[in-house]
Amino acid sequence: MAQNMGRLVEQAGKVTAAYLKPIERGEAKTGAADEASEMVKVLGRVAERWVSDPQKIIEAQASLTTDFLSLWSATLKRLGGEPAEPVIEPEKRDARFADPEWESHPVFDFVKQAYLLSSRWAESMVEQAEDLDPHTRDRARFYVKQIAGALSPSNFVATNPELLRETLAQNGENLVRGMKMLAEDIEAGGGELKIRQSDNRAFEIGVNIATTPGKVIYRNDIIELIQYAPSTEKVLKRPLLIVPPWINKFYILDLNPEKSFIRWCVAQGLTVFCISWVNPDHRHALKDFESYMREGIFAALEAIEQATGEKQVSAIGYCVGGTLLGVTLAYMAATQDKRIASATFFTTQVDFSKAGELSVFVDEQQIRTLEEQMAERGYLDGARMAGAFNMLRPNDLIWSYAVNNYLKGKAPTAFDLLYWNSDSTRMPAANHSFYLRNCYLDNKLTKGEMRIGGKLLDLGKVTIPIYNLATREDHIAPANSVFIGSQSFGGPVSYVMAGSGHIAGVVNPPSKVKYQYWTGAKPEGAFENWVKRAEEHPGSWWPHWVAWLQEQAPKQVKARIPGDGKLKPLEDAPGSYVKVKA
What angle do CA 113, 118, 120 make, to 5 degrees? Predict the structure, then answer.
């Protein structure tokens, strides 16, 4: 133990060095101080509301005191050998307190319940603060969640029974290994902690992840277009174009053969094309939403026509790729462009009036600060977006890995989804600023106020058939928000809600029979009423979608081989752009 404590101090010195190195070189990333200042300001506004009414403060303190007196009483009973009902219990899905000693040992049970009572009380202080505007209240909830997650007794050796046992059993060797990994992760993050969530050495793009056969048939400054090799003799005449999000990489739809949506589509007799966005740098600073429309979707449509001779395609847009697709469809409606004959949206918002939890990061002050930071480099660092997504679920995506890696000293296991999650991308300054201001901040698209290429956009003029997929537990594009957006289109919309969340609800192959999906009437009226009347179906929504797609254009032709058209292959799928690290 003594030797390991000495080694622990040595590794702690390496942690400090990894943190200080970018500062000494003048390469330290900025923004952390601004974020901390914003948190203090927001929580200060909550405190102001309580200070203005001393009677309410007394009542709030009395409530917490009563809970703690009940906890003390129950703990004393247990210490005396008497049974006692818990004052508060963690949620069933809360894995932090799964170890049996959190319940069986009176002291750890007390620590756990004291933490839960304090967290619940802090949350209630935000909820009961009077005269707070909705955005400030949402941000206060978010910050309280971050603080509560960080202060959980499960995150500290002295207050976590499992960590105590492991540390004593290993004579502190686990802490030495953990400190070594901490130093490595801070160095990998350029002075900021980049928590590893998966064993990244276990994956190589194009070797055991993103392996569906195909060819890159077109490339420009911001996209590579992949055409996948057929696996059937006949295919639908109308090709399929997938527009993935550029906030992360396209191979979420091609993780492995068992989970690959792209491979499954090919097996259903579709000619599949997929955009692979560039991982931008300072050269792409001025690439805006219109650039992504013209050099992204329009360039892909032109390439598909050259490759197949087809003038019309079916299109899929995922998340922000779907928002771009929605904007593009409105522009195409304004210019009488009919090259996209039907559209599918995966967890996509076009109406942001009830946007997801990411809206806590969006207001005029925060956008201005972000724009100033992006102006220095020409892009938003991919780690910033990855960190924002992780902060939406801090217990699952931050602290569980911090405990496992740095306190238990266990390297994370190989998991393709988390490998993808950590493979972040940068955002061009002009594009990201336009998206935040026009969509999240001002919600211009569904208001009919957004302009692209000199055209005022109106989603009501988009009359092509639409399949709009939401997921029930989505915290990024809530099902209600997707439902509201469905009502903005002028043509027939099939609204479908899948089980699970933003990723697992989409990447849900039929072979797994893991989740369910709901279908129902037209997306009209209140979302709650639609849900009450919706019909539940077991398993994946994928077969339901492909049946819908086949109804739009059932004609078949001989399967197309990448490179047989006017465009010759540039390289094998998945291409080069997807391999560029942030």
Answer: 95
- 3-state SS, residue 540: coil
- Active-site residue identified among 265, 274, 319, 439: 319
Instruction: Identify the H or E element spanning 73.
Output: helix 54-79
Domain spans of the chain? 2-16+23-171, 214-359+443-579
pLDDT band at 33 (very low <50, low <70, confident <90, very high): low
DSSP 366-410: HHHHHHHHHHHHSEE-HHHHHHHHHHTSHIIIIIHHHIIIIIS--
Q: Using 50, 70 and 90 to split pLDDT, how confident is the model at 131?
A: confident
pTM here is 0.92
Tokens of 38: 């914003």
* Distance of alpha carbon 262 from alpha carbon 267, whole angstroms: 9
Q: What are phi and psi of 530, to 5 degrees?
A: -60, -45
Q: Does domain 214-359+443-579 have CATH number 3.40.50.1820?
A: yes
Q: How far is CA 152 from CA 159, 268, 274, 313, 577, in A?
A: 9, 48, 43, 51, 40
- Asked whether the beta carbons of 476 and 445 are under 8 A apart, the reply is no
- Examine the residue annotation and report whether 319 is marked as an active-site residue of this protein: yes
Cα–Cα dist 288/326, whole Å: 16
Q: Kindly report the length of the chain.
A: 582
Q: What's the pLDDT at 31?
A: 58
Q: How do strand 223-228 and strand 214-219 relate by DSSP bridges?
A: antiparallel
* Cα diameter, the chain: 84
